[in-house]
Amino acid sequence: MPPIFRVENSHYNYTRDGIFIVSLILIALVLEFSSGTDGVVTMHSVPKEKNAAPLTPPKAVNNPVKAANLINFTSPDGWLEDENPSPMTTFSFTVPGGAIVSAIPLPARIADNPMIVNMWREQVGLGPIDSTKATQLAKAVTIGGNKGSLYDFSGTQPIQGQTKPPRLIMASLKLGQVAWFLKMAGPAESIENQLASFTQFLDELKFQPAAYEINFDKLMQEAQQSAPTPTPTPTPTPTPTPTWTKPTSWEEKPATQMRLGNFSAGNGKAEITVMTFPGTVGGLLANVNRWREQSGLAAVNDSDLNKVTQQITISGKPATFVEAIGEKNSSLSVYHPVDQQTWFYKISGSSEVVKTEKAAFTAFLQSIEF
Fold it and tell me: 311: part of which helix (H) or strand (E)?
Protein backbone atom coordinates (compact mmCIF):
# COMPACT_ATOMS: atom_id res chain seq x y z
CA MET A 1 0.00 0.00 0.00
CA PRO A 2 1.66 3.29 -1.02
CA PRO A 3 2.11 6.02 1.63
CA ILE A 4 -0.65 8.62 1.82
CA PHE A 5 1.46 11.67 2.49
CA ARG A 6 4.76 13.31 1.65
CA VAL A 7 6.58 14.51 4.71
CA GLU A 8 8.45 17.21 2.80
CA ASN A 9 5.59 18.54 0.73
CA SER A 10 2.53 20.22 2.16
CA HIS A 11 0.36 19.40 -0.85
CA TYR A 12 -1.82 16.31 -0.98
CA ASN A 13 -1.12 13.56 -3.42
CA TYR A 14 -4.63 12.93 -4.72
CA THR A 15 -3.83 9.55 -6.21
CA ARG A 16 -2.42 8.08 -3.00
CA ASP A 17 -5.09 9.54 -0.69
CA GLY A 18 -7.75 8.18 -3.04
CA ILE A 19 -6.23 4.70 -3.06
CA PHE A 20 -6.03 4.64 0.74
CA ILE A 21 -9.60 5.84 1.31
CA VAL A 22 -11.20 3.62 -1.33
CA SER A 23 -9.17 0.64 -0.08
CA LEU A 24 -10.53 1.10 3.44
CA ILE A 25 -14.11 1.48 2.25
CA LEU A 26 -13.87 -1.68 0.13
CA ILE A 27 -12.43 -3.59 3.09
CA ALA A 28 -15.33 -2.42 5.25
CA LEU A 29 -17.94 -3.34 2.66
CA VAL A 30 -16.49 -6.79 2.10
CA LEU A 31 -16.32 -7.46 5.84
CA GLU A 32 -19.92 -6.30 6.16
CA PHE A 33 -21.33 -8.60 3.47
CA SER A 34 -18.99 -11.60 3.49
CA SER A 35 -20.78 -13.43 6.35
CA GLY A 36 -17.48 -13.68 8.19
CA THR A 37 -15.84 -15.94 5.64
CA ASP A 38 -13.27 -13.53 4.27
CA GLY A 39 -11.97 -10.03 4.65
CA VAL A 40 -9.73 -9.67 1.64
CA VAL A 41 -10.61 -7.73 -1.47
CA THR A 42 -9.11 -7.19 -4.88
CA MET A 43 -8.66 -3.82 -6.52
CA HIS A 44 -7.41 -4.43 -10.06
CA SER A 45 -8.09 -0.86 -11.10
CA VAL A 46 -5.80 0.69 -8.46
CA PRO A 47 -2.43 1.73 -9.95
CA LYS A 48 0.82 1.41 -8.05
CA GLU A 49 2.63 4.57 -7.03
CA LYS A 50 5.25 4.26 -9.72
CA ASN A 51 2.54 4.06 -12.39
CA ALA A 52 0.48 6.94 -11.06
CA ALA A 53 -0.42 9.41 -13.78
CA PRO A 54 0.76 13.00 -13.32
CA LEU A 55 -2.14 15.20 -12.34
CA THR A 56 -3.12 18.40 -14.05
CA PRO A 57 -3.33 21.41 -11.72
CA PRO A 58 -6.65 20.89 -9.93
CA LYS A 59 -9.45 23.33 -10.29
CA ALA A 60 -11.34 24.49 -7.23
CA VAL A 61 -12.98 21.37 -5.83
CA ASN A 62 -16.29 21.46 -4.06
CA ASN A 63 -15.64 19.06 -1.24
CA PRO A 64 -18.56 16.57 -1.27
CA VAL A 65 -18.38 16.33 2.54
CA LYS A 66 -19.41 19.76 3.81
CA ALA A 67 -17.51 20.39 7.03
CA ALA A 68 -20.11 22.73 8.53
CA ASN A 69 -22.83 20.08 8.14
CA LEU A 70 -20.79 17.50 10.05
CA ILE A 71 -18.31 19.17 12.40
CA ASN A 72 -18.03 22.64 13.89
CA PHE A 73 -14.53 23.74 14.86
CA THR A 74 -12.18 26.68 15.33
CA SER A 75 -8.79 26.20 13.72
CA PRO A 76 -5.67 27.09 15.75
CA ASP A 77 -3.57 30.10 14.83
CA GLY A 78 -1.32 29.47 11.85
CA TRP A 79 -3.36 26.61 10.43
CA LEU A 80 -4.16 27.28 6.77
CA GLU A 81 -7.20 25.63 5.22
CA ASP A 82 -6.36 23.84 1.99
CA GLU A 83 -8.14 25.36 -0.99
CA ASN A 84 -8.30 22.03 -2.85
CA PRO A 85 -8.67 19.27 -0.26
CA SER A 86 -8.41 15.66 -1.32
CA PRO A 87 -11.87 14.29 -2.18
CA MET A 88 -13.74 12.72 0.75
CA THR A 89 -11.88 14.68 3.45
CA THR A 90 -14.22 16.76 5.59
CA PHE A 91 -11.52 19.34 6.22
CA SER A 92 -7.81 19.69 5.55
CA PHE A 93 -5.22 22.11 6.94
CA THR A 94 -1.54 22.79 6.41
CA VAL A 95 0.02 23.57 9.79
CA PRO A 96 3.26 25.46 10.54
CA GLY A 97 6.23 23.35 9.56
CA GLY A 98 4.45 21.58 6.70
CA ALA A 99 2.40 18.84 8.40
CA ILE A 100 -1.14 18.14 7.22
CA VAL A 101 -4.22 17.77 9.44
CA SER A 102 -7.32 16.22 7.92
CA ALA A 103 -10.57 14.43 8.80
CA ILE A 104 -11.99 11.47 6.91
CA PRO A 105 -15.33 9.71 7.63
CA LEU A 106 -15.48 6.00 6.81
CA PRO A 107 -17.83 3.10 7.61
CA ALA A 108 -17.81 2.25 11.33
CA ARG A 109 -16.87 -1.39 10.69
CA ILE A 110 -13.37 -0.24 9.75
CA ALA A 111 -12.64 1.00 13.26
CA ASP A 112 -12.97 -2.56 14.63
CA ASN A 113 -10.59 -4.11 12.10
CA PRO A 114 -7.05 -4.46 13.54
CA MET A 115 -5.75 -4.68 9.97
CA ILE A 116 -6.09 -0.90 9.63
CA VAL A 117 -3.41 -0.36 12.29
CA ASN A 118 -0.94 -2.35 10.20
CA MET A 119 -1.92 -0.28 7.17
CA TRP A 120 -0.94 2.88 9.08
CA ARG A 121 2.30 1.27 10.23
CA GLU A 122 3.13 0.20 6.70
CA GLN A 123 2.73 3.81 5.53
CA VAL A 124 5.67 4.89 7.72
CA GLY A 125 7.76 1.80 6.98
CA LEU A 126 7.01 -0.21 10.13
CA GLY A 127 6.27 -3.94 10.19
CA PRO A 128 2.93 -5.57 11.10
CA ILE A 129 1.84 -6.38 14.64
CA ASP A 130 -0.88 -8.61 16.07
CA SER A 131 -4.25 -7.36 17.32
CA THR A 132 -3.21 -7.57 20.96
CA LYS A 133 -0.21 -5.32 20.42
CA ALA A 134 -2.31 -2.94 18.33
CA THR A 135 -4.77 -2.57 21.20
CA GLN A 136 -1.92 -1.88 23.60
CA LEU A 137 -0.59 0.92 21.38
CA ALA A 138 -3.89 2.83 21.44
CA LYS A 139 -3.88 5.81 23.77
CA ALA A 140 -7.05 7.38 25.13
CA VAL A 141 -7.94 10.76 23.66
CA THR A 142 -10.98 13.03 23.86
CA ILE A 143 -12.48 13.91 20.49
CA GLY A 144 -15.38 16.32 20.56
CA GLY A 145 -16.38 15.24 24.08
CA ASN A 146 -16.21 11.54 23.10
CA LYS A 147 -13.71 8.87 24.04
CA GLY A 148 -11.47 7.99 21.14
CA SER A 149 -8.15 6.27 20.40
CA LEU A 150 -4.89 7.83 19.29
CA TYR A 151 -2.00 6.10 17.54
CA ASP A 152 1.44 7.64 17.04
CA PHE A 153 3.74 6.00 14.49
CA SER A 154 7.24 7.20 13.60
CA GLY A 155 9.26 5.55 10.87
CA THR A 156 12.91 4.67 11.45
CA GLN A 157 14.01 5.13 7.84
CA PRO A 158 12.98 7.55 5.07
CA ILE A 159 10.31 6.09 2.80
CA GLN A 160 10.87 6.01 -0.95
CA GLY A 161 11.32 9.51 -2.35
CA GLN A 162 11.96 11.12 1.05
CA THR A 163 15.07 12.16 2.99
CA LYS A 164 13.69 11.96 6.55
CA PRO A 165 11.70 9.27 8.43
CA PRO A 166 7.95 10.00 8.38
CA ARG A 167 5.60 10.39 11.33
CA LEU A 168 1.84 9.86 11.43
CA ILE A 169 -0.64 10.46 14.25
CA MET A 170 -4.14 9.04 13.82
CA ALA A 171 -7.06 9.71 16.16
CA SER A 172 -10.25 7.72 15.68
CA LEU A 173 -13.69 7.26 17.18
CA LYS A 174 -17.03 5.73 16.23
CA LEU A 175 -20.19 7.79 16.05
CA GLY A 176 -23.20 5.68 15.11
CA GLN A 177 -22.57 4.21 11.66
CA VAL A 178 -19.49 6.34 11.03
CA ALA A 179 -15.85 5.95 12.01
CA TRP A 180 -14.04 9.28 12.08
CA PHE A 181 -10.29 9.34 11.41
CA LEU A 182 -8.42 12.55 12.18
CA LYS A 183 -4.87 12.52 10.93
CA MET A 184 -1.77 14.64 11.38
CA ALA A 185 1.08 13.60 9.11
CA GLY A 186 4.29 15.18 7.94
CA PRO A 187 7.71 16.28 9.21
CA ALA A 188 8.40 15.04 12.74
CA GLU A 189 9.49 18.50 13.94
CA SER A 190 6.27 20.09 12.69
CA ILE A 191 4.16 17.40 14.38
CA GLU A 192 6.04 17.71 17.66
CA ASN A 193 5.53 21.48 17.70
CA GLN A 194 1.83 21.21 16.80
CA LEU A 195 0.88 18.16 18.87
CA ALA A 196 -0.59 20.16 21.76
CA SER A 197 -2.63 22.28 19.34
CA PHE A 198 -3.81 19.12 17.56
CA THR A 199 -5.03 17.41 20.75
CA GLN A 200 -6.78 20.59 21.91
CA PHE A 201 -8.35 20.92 18.47
CA LEU A 202 -9.67 17.35 18.75
CA ASP A 203 -11.11 18.04 22.20
CA GLU A 204 -12.99 21.13 21.04
CA LEU A 205 -14.60 19.62 17.93
CA LYS A 206 -18.41 19.69 17.89
CA PHE A 207 -19.95 16.84 15.88
CA GLN A 208 -23.34 17.57 14.31
CA PRO A 209 -26.20 15.01 14.02
CA ALA A 210 -25.29 14.34 10.37
CA ALA A 211 -21.85 13.11 11.50
CA TYR A 212 -23.43 9.94 12.90
CA GLU A 213 -24.84 8.64 9.62
CA ILE A 214 -23.35 9.14 6.15
CA ASN A 215 -24.38 7.66 2.80
CA PHE A 216 -20.99 6.33 1.67
CA ASP A 217 -22.22 5.16 -1.75
CA LYS A 218 -23.27 8.71 -2.54
CA LEU A 219 -20.12 10.09 -0.95
CA MET A 220 -17.83 8.01 -3.15
CA GLN A 221 -19.74 8.99 -6.29
CA GLU A 222 -19.48 12.68 -5.41
CA ALA A 223 -15.82 12.33 -4.54
CA GLN A 224 -15.09 10.73 -7.91
CA GLN A 225 -16.88 13.57 -9.66
CA SER A 226 -14.93 16.15 -7.63
CA ALA A 227 -11.51 14.57 -8.06
CA PRO A 228 -8.98 16.19 -10.44
CA THR A 229 -8.75 14.60 -13.88
CA PRO A 230 -5.38 12.89 -14.43
CA THR A 231 -3.38 13.43 -17.61
CA PRO A 232 -3.79 10.36 -19.86
CA THR A 233 -0.78 8.02 -19.78
CA PRO A 234 -0.10 4.61 -21.33
CA THR A 235 -1.97 1.80 -19.63
CA PRO A 236 0.33 0.08 -17.09
CA THR A 237 1.18 -3.57 -17.46
CA PRO A 238 -1.67 -5.57 -15.88
CA THR A 239 -1.03 -7.81 -12.90
CA PRO A 240 -0.29 -11.37 -14.09
CA THR A 241 -3.26 -13.68 -13.55
CA PRO A 242 -2.58 -17.29 -12.59
CA THR A 243 -4.08 -20.36 -14.20
CA TRP A 244 -5.11 -23.53 -12.37
CA THR A 245 -6.82 -26.88 -12.69
CA LYS A 246 -10.20 -27.24 -10.95
CA PRO A 247 -10.67 -30.42 -8.89
CA THR A 248 -13.55 -32.57 -10.12
CA SER A 249 -15.29 -32.44 -6.73
CA TRP A 250 -15.65 -28.65 -6.90
CA GLU A 251 -18.49 -26.73 -8.52
CA GLU A 252 -17.33 -23.66 -10.42
CA LYS A 253 -19.24 -20.43 -9.81
CA PRO A 254 -19.10 -17.17 -11.78
CA ALA A 255 -16.01 -15.09 -11.08
CA THR A 256 -16.53 -11.61 -9.65
CA GLN A 257 -14.36 -8.51 -9.43
CA MET A 258 -13.24 -9.65 -5.99
CA ARG A 259 -13.10 -13.39 -6.64
CA LEU A 260 -10.96 -14.32 -9.63
CA GLY A 261 -11.52 -17.94 -8.67
CA ASN A 262 -14.89 -18.86 -7.17
CA PHE A 263 -15.90 -22.44 -6.32
CA SER A 264 -17.97 -24.46 -3.85
CA ALA A 265 -17.64 -27.96 -2.45
CA GLY A 266 -19.66 -30.35 -0.31
CA ASN A 267 -23.03 -29.23 -1.72
CA GLY A 268 -22.24 -25.62 -0.94
CA LYS A 269 -21.03 -26.23 2.63
CA ALA A 270 -17.58 -24.88 1.77
CA GLU A 271 -16.39 -22.18 -0.59
CA ILE A 272 -13.07 -21.79 -2.36
CA THR A 273 -11.80 -18.40 -3.47
CA VAL A 274 -8.83 -16.84 -5.25
CA MET A 275 -8.31 -13.14 -4.52
CA THR A 276 -5.55 -10.55 -4.81
CA PHE A 277 -4.81 -7.20 -3.22
CA PRO A 278 -2.02 -4.62 -3.61
CA GLY A 279 0.61 -4.52 -0.89
CA THR A 280 0.83 -6.81 2.12
CA VAL A 281 -2.79 -6.38 3.30
CA GLY A 282 -1.84 -5.96 6.94
CA GLY A 283 0.88 -8.60 6.95
CA LEU A 284 0.92 -12.35 7.51
CA LEU A 285 0.27 -12.33 11.28
CA ALA A 286 -2.87 -10.19 11.05
CA ASN A 287 -4.33 -12.45 8.36
CA VAL A 288 -3.44 -15.65 10.23
CA ASN A 289 -5.24 -14.41 13.33
CA ARG A 290 -8.24 -13.30 11.28
CA TRP A 291 -8.57 -16.79 9.79
CA ARG A 292 -8.11 -18.41 13.21
CA GLU A 293 -10.79 -16.15 14.71
CA GLN A 294 -13.21 -17.18 11.95
CA SER A 295 -12.66 -20.82 12.96
CA GLY A 296 -13.10 -20.11 16.66
CA LEU A 297 -9.40 -20.46 17.48
CA ALA A 298 -7.24 -18.27 19.71
CA ALA A 299 -4.90 -15.68 18.24
CA VAL A 300 -1.15 -16.28 18.15
CA ASN A 301 1.81 -13.94 18.48
CA ASP A 302 4.98 -13.60 16.41
CA SER A 303 6.87 -16.23 18.38
CA ASP A 304 4.18 -18.87 17.75
CA LEU A 305 3.51 -18.01 14.11
CA ASN A 306 5.76 -20.79 12.78
CA LYS A 307 3.79 -23.34 14.83
CA VAL A 308 0.54 -22.66 12.94
CA THR A 309 1.94 -22.05 9.44
CA GLN A 310 3.83 -24.03 6.84
CA GLN A 311 6.10 -22.74 4.08
CA ILE A 312 5.22 -23.97 0.59
CA THR A 313 6.00 -23.04 -3.01
CA ILE A 314 3.42 -21.97 -5.58
CA SER A 315 4.50 -21.43 -9.19
CA GLY A 316 8.10 -21.17 -8.05
CA LYS A 317 7.36 -18.45 -5.48
CA PRO A 318 7.39 -18.89 -1.67
CA ALA A 319 4.01 -18.84 0.08
CA THR A 320 2.61 -19.56 3.53
CA PHE A 321 -0.01 -22.26 4.17
CA VAL A 322 -2.31 -21.73 7.15
CA GLU A 323 -4.53 -24.47 8.57
CA ALA A 324 -7.25 -23.31 10.97
CA ILE A 325 -9.41 -26.29 11.98
CA GLY A 326 -12.20 -25.43 14.39
CA GLU A 327 -14.96 -27.51 15.93
CA LYS A 328 -17.62 -26.40 13.45
CA ASN A 329 -15.92 -24.09 10.96
CA SER A 330 -12.49 -24.43 9.41
CA SER A 331 -10.30 -22.96 6.71
CA LEU A 332 -7.19 -23.75 4.72
CA SER A 333 -5.59 -20.55 3.44
CA VAL A 334 -2.50 -19.45 1.56
CA TYR A 335 -0.77 -16.06 1.84
CA HIS A 336 1.22 -15.57 -1.38
CA PRO A 337 3.12 -12.30 -2.10
CA VAL A 338 3.90 -11.86 -5.81
CA ASP A 339 5.27 -8.67 -7.42
CA GLN A 340 3.93 -6.16 -4.84
CA GLN A 341 0.59 -7.98 -4.79
CA THR A 342 -0.62 -10.54 -2.27
CA TRP A 343 -2.62 -13.50 -3.54
CA PHE A 344 -4.99 -15.42 -1.27
CA TYR A 345 -6.22 -18.97 -1.96
CA LYS A 346 -8.71 -20.26 0.58
CA ILE A 347 -11.25 -22.97 1.30
CA SER A 348 -13.56 -22.27 4.25
CA GLY A 349 -16.79 -23.59 5.66
CA SER A 350 -17.95 -26.75 7.43
CA SER A 351 -15.04 -28.45 9.21
CA GLU A 352 -16.12 -31.85 7.88
CA VAL A 353 -16.08 -30.65 4.26
CA VAL A 354 -12.86 -28.65 4.58
CA LYS A 355 -11.00 -31.65 5.99
CA THR A 356 -12.44 -33.91 3.28
CA GLU A 357 -11.38 -31.48 0.53
CA LYS A 358 -7.84 -30.89 1.85
CA ALA A 359 -6.28 -33.23 -0.74
CA ALA A 360 -8.20 -31.54 -3.57
CA PHE A 361 -7.19 -28.10 -2.28
CA THR A 362 -3.54 -29.16 -2.11
CA ALA A 363 -3.71 -30.43 -5.70
CA PHE A 364 -5.34 -27.15 -6.72
CA LEU A 365 -2.45 -25.19 -5.18
CA GLN A 366 0.11 -27.36 -6.97
CA SER A 367 -1.60 -26.67 -10.31
CA ILE A 368 -1.39 -22.87 -10.03
CA GLU A 369 0.93 -21.22 -12.53
CA PHE A 370 1.65 -17.54 -13.25
Answer: strand 309-314
